[in-house]
């Protein structure tokens, strides 16, 4: 599962971002967005870095499923990014 996570955020999402109108393109941004949404708070408040090694398996599976949904177009990366920024106090309501 950890290999799937690293492939998803390190390769597949950044590659897909080249041809999509997404708000982010960097691997660490995808990780932030998916993990924050999964944890419902900034992920570093819940898990020690590195996230790929320390996230509980059930939470990592949820984040992977969310990333797959982003790739399939059934989850809105723009909305997830706004949620992440709001959770971090970088976006006003």
Automatic annotation (TrEMBL):
GO terms for molecular function: transferase activity. It comes from the Bacteria. Keywords: Transferase. It comes from Pontivivens ytuae. This is GCN5-related N-acetyltransferase.
